[in-house]
Amino acid sequence: MALASTTFDYDHGRQVSAYVPAAPPELVVFCGDGQLIASWGEGLAAAGAPPTLIVGAHRSSDPDEMVRLHEYSPGFEPERFAAHEGWFLEAIMPWARAEFGALPALRTVFAGVSAGAELALAMGLRHPELFGTIFAASPGAGYRPPAELPAPLPRTWLTAGTEEPFFLGNATRWHAALSAASADVVLRELPGEHGGPFWQAEFVRMLGWALAD
Questions:
Q1: Which of 28, 47, 125, 200 would disulfide-bridge 53, Cβ 3.0–4.6 Å?
Q2: How far apart are CA 135 and CA 198, in angstroms?
């Protein structure tokens, strides 16, 4: 098992962290906020999760949180979002395939928490041919269900805490929209507040669900 980082030219130098499991991966997870989510890999084996490769792009170093939000959600600054989206599709994913090998879309997940959950939903819905599963914990409201949803839809696991009603409401909105479109979607409401430990615990559960028939 190893956690390593590399630096891309994007945004004057932006890191991507990768957690590489000891066994051949059964799943690959792409995500924003890579400095957080890639670090979860160390506990996956102990928690009984399937071998999972995690490839996470670090967030912007700009202290203005709106920069991150505008990169992650297409509804604010479409050009900024498109640049970040293109970085994933044209640089990060080809690099990951070259370094670690490819897995089919049904075994490829886009995951995120908070604003990163908006990124996961946007990437999954805009590119269902690449990402067979979405994991969205406590999504914000900057990206809402579009009027027209793609077909087929990625399988989607949503979760939010009882002590974060704003984010729980967003997750519930997504669950209703995806259910109405006949998607395979799960919503779990759990005790906890924004940023709570339930995010990491749900990540382990989602990995097992992503491999279920």
A1: 28
A2: 13
Q: For the purposes of burial, counting CB atoms within 10 Å of the CB of 194, is it exposed (0-12), middle (13-18) or buried (19 or more)? A: middle
Total tally of structural domains belonging to the chain: 1
DSSP state, residue 156? E
User: What is the tens place of the pLDDT at every residue in 46-96?
Assistant: 898 999 999 999 999 888 889 999 999 998 999 999 999 999 999 999 999
What is the predicted pLDDT for the residue at 213?
63
CB-CB contact of 111 with 103 (8 Å): no
Identify the CATH number of the domain in which residue 56 sits. Answer: 3.40.50.1820
Instruction: Provide, rounded to the nearest whole percent, the portion of the chain with pLDDT above 90.
Output: 82
Contacts made by residues 39-45, CB under 8 angstroms, sequence distance 24+: 39/3, 40/200, 40/203, 41/1, 41/3, 42/1, 42/3, 43/200, 43/204, 44/204, 44/207, 45/1, 45/21
What is the residue range of 11's domain?
A: 2-210
Cis-peptide into 104, omega within 30 deg? no
Count of helices and strands (H, E) across the chain: 7, 8
Provide the 3-class DSSP secondary structure of residue 154. coil
Closest CA relative to residue 136, chosen from 167, 91, 107:
167
